[in-house]
Amino acid sequence: MKKIIMFNRLRSVIFTVIGNLLVLHIAVSAEYVYSSGYSSPSFDSSSYGAPGVPSPPQSVGYKGLEWEKIAYNNSRTWEKAIIYCRKLKLGGHDDWRLPTKDELKSLVKCSNGKTTPLADWEGDLRGEEAQNTKVATCCIDYPLCNDFDRPTIIDLLSCAPTAYWSSTIDEHGRIWGVNFFDGRAVQGYYPAIPNQIRCVRSTSRE
């Protein structure tokens, strides 16, 4: 009986110690969040970093267009991508849109010095692989294609090395996109399969 009582007391002490440590951990974490002034950025927020510290730019100007700077982890179907850009409020502007194929292609940069803009990929995603890779991607040393940095985008911006939607549709109703894994602009992306988004707006009115 004494052994059972001693065991129960010991277990109670252990649980109390663990509980106190957990409370202390939570309190310290909460104090850090409060004292650091951190707040999670919202859809249209400039509340990055500590109070009084200027927010990083939310957009970047390039060749007469203003581009959304942050373009990660925003994968949507084509129709939802169009709606997202139309509803976007960023940097005090609400006239954002999904870029055209050629506008998106203007962001491609080949670190190996290959001239851009690249040729369009001939045919859809199932087109002639070898010839298209040589002329429509950053690849020079085909078939290795390890002679350039990924993602294939200008230094002003960054992105995921994957496909991004454009608003351009060809005469057969196929949707164009640009893949920043190797710089290729391809038609034939399926609208129901999500791709990444980078919105744009014109900085001058015609």
Describe the structure.
The protein has 206 residues and is an alpha+beta fold. The chain has a domain at 59-202: Roll (Mannose-Binding Protein A, Chain A), CATH 3.10.100. It has four helices and eight strands. Strands 1-2-8 form a three-stranded antiparallel β-sheet, with no helix packed on it. It has a three-stranded antiparallel β-sheet with strand order 4-5-6. β1 (59-62) and β2 form a beta hairpin. The protein starts with a helix and ends with a strand. Residues 2-8 and 13-49 have low confidence and may be disordered.
Based on the model shown, name its key terms.
disordered N terminus, 3-stranded antiparallel sheet, 206 residues, Mannose-Binding Protein A, Chain A, 16% strand, single chain, alpha+beta
CATH architecture of the domain at 59-202: Roll
Order of helices and strands: HEEEHHHEEEEE
Q: Main beta sheet, described?
A: 3 strands, antiparallel
Q: In angstroms, what separates the terminal alpha carbons?
A: 91 Å
Total of helices: 4
Briefly say what this structure is.
With 206 residues, the protein is an alpha+beta fold.
Strand-helix topology:
Layout: H1 2-36, E1 59-62, E2 65-68, E3 75-76, H2 78-87, H3 101-105, H4 129-136, E4 163-169, E5 175-179, E6 184-189, E7 195-196, E8 200-202
Antiparallel strand pairs: 1-2, 2-8, 3-7, 4-5, 5-6
